[in-house]
Amino acid sequence: MNDTTNIAAVPNHSQVQFRMACHADLEQIIPINNQYYDCWSNENFSQAIEQNLPFIVILNSQQEILGYLVYLVCLDELRIINVTVAKKHQGNGYAKLLMSCAFEQVIPLAIRWALLDVRVSNTRAVSLYKHLGFQILCRRAEYYTELANEDAYFMQLKIPSNPGGILSNAA
Question: pLDDT band at residue 147, thresholds of 50, 70 and 90?
Fold first, then answer.
């Protein structure tokens, strides 16, 4: 996904675009990250870009970054590393759209599992992931330690051989 990709088929999101992040995006990405937590440093984001990790940004028609998603693929697993939407843009379905974009990108890779960790206190995200079909496998005690020790849910989604159902839940 080197080019900007429109997703005009998604209702109420005809002006939204996805593309891979670049270093110039960090001036918008870092403040979004800092609205929530400080676990990713500027260096972490720079390394993700330099190492060509799949790092998707979602933009509006004014080229404002609304949110981002970083993931890894290892063997038959999609590992969602970081999904964040700017506070002022939450509740508009952008996290779902980012997840949908990630799922679409890995369809050719025969991914069997999607995995992620989420803060127990992040009830909106937990609800979204459950809606997409993720199940809680376990609770990881004191997983997040950057501000205060906070538990995480480790969640898993079994990807069907035809992931169209997941994509329809995400859209």
Answer: low
Question: Is the backbone of residue 110 left (phi > 0), alpha (psi -120 to 50) or beta?
Answer: left
> Is the Cβ–Cβ distance between 137 and 168 less than 8 Å?
no
Q: Give residue for tokens 């859209």.
A: 171
Q: How far apart are CA 143 and CA 19, in angstroms?
A: 30
pLDDT for residue 104 = 87
CB-side neighbour CA atoms (13 Å) of 118: 22
The answer to whether the pTM exceeds 0.90 is no
- DSSP labels, 128-165: HHHHTT-EEEEEEEEEE-SSS-EEEEEEEEEPPSSTHH
What are the start-end ranges of the H helices in 107-163?
A: 123-131
What is the C-alpha separation between 25 and 27, in angstroms, rounded?
5
Count of C-beta atoms within a 10 Å radius of residue 136: 14
